[in-house]
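Deliverable D4.2, example record:
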Amino acid sequence: MPFKAIGRTYQALRFIPVLGGGLLCCSMSFAEEKASENFHPTSGQACAGVIGDSDRLACYDSYFKPKQLQDNAPLNALTETVAQPNQTMPLSATTVEKSTEEVSLKEKLTRSLHYIYSNDARQPLNTQNSLLDSRWELSEKSKLGTWNIRGYKPIYALPIFWTSNRNVYPSSPNPLNTVTERQDLNFTESKFQLSLKTKAWENIFGDNGDLWIGYTQSSRWQVYNAQNSRPFRETNYEPEASLIFRTNYNLVGLDGRLFGVTFNHQSNGRADPFSRSWNRVMLNFGFERDNFAIMVRPWYRIPENTRDDNNPDIENYMGRGDITAFYRVNDNDFSLMLRHSLRTGDASHGAVQFDWTFPIKGKLRGQIQYFSGYGESLIDYNHRANYIGVGVSLMDWF
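Output generated by the structure prediction step:
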């Protein structure tokens, strides 16, 4: 709070001899007068975008300082404070109450976010080398406005996608979602994924906080299964909305650059007994260092009615969180995804996915994907298998 900053300033003056108090007081009065001349903010939020720490502080002081401190700063009162450092400047109850009422909840949050995320003692965000900034427009220089279509998750096409174990009897603890008729499937199919996002609201809290809307769709196509008319075996639809904040802190040598809250829906859009779906609330933590980035996403599944729940034990197989690490070296991109149920015993299940994309010619890039574990798709959420895919990458994580 600005009141605390004023108090610390007066406490620091106890080290200055009283004989020099007159000169110091004149200097402080002149600085305050200049700040009042240069800054006349109508809200605390208006000060968030001021460049320069000293100017920004002066702007906040000009807005939040009580009127009696702005208009009445007699020299003898300040000199008396210098001589008696333990004496605090009285504030009337009316003034404190008025200042509290004028500061809205949004302004308080804006000031708090601005202080936390713009501390000069922390590593500044290098917009040229930041992987997370390039994809999420975290810095002011990187912001492109709203409703621009951007890449989200990787976009690729894998003409060859082979599995070691076909799921010919998809099952679920819900008897309405257990398939009793054997599915005639090939071991080899094709897989492709499309993923896009757009920013719907920018700078919700001062110069921070963006609302993103994303959509991801992945399909498994039995393109080589001619005897069954080459059906699409499984398609997953995943719309979501995320509130993303820029952060600035260091943890075990990594720079914490991103925090977000996401509402995620995922389903396969099919009728019973093949229907699978769930809703989640996710937290997003983004870290990076040079050409390395990592995203940590714990989540909570929103409960459903027992009768309508297609997959009541899905979090014991597709997990309660995941970690995705990305590394770029010599124009080769490597990513590793790990997820787990965070349970022991019979409920301990998880999966690992490794992707490698590499240059072929020009902007054409190849991709190799390996998956092992549960839940490669929603229909296979409780089915364990290994998968190997080969194809082309159109867009990677970064």
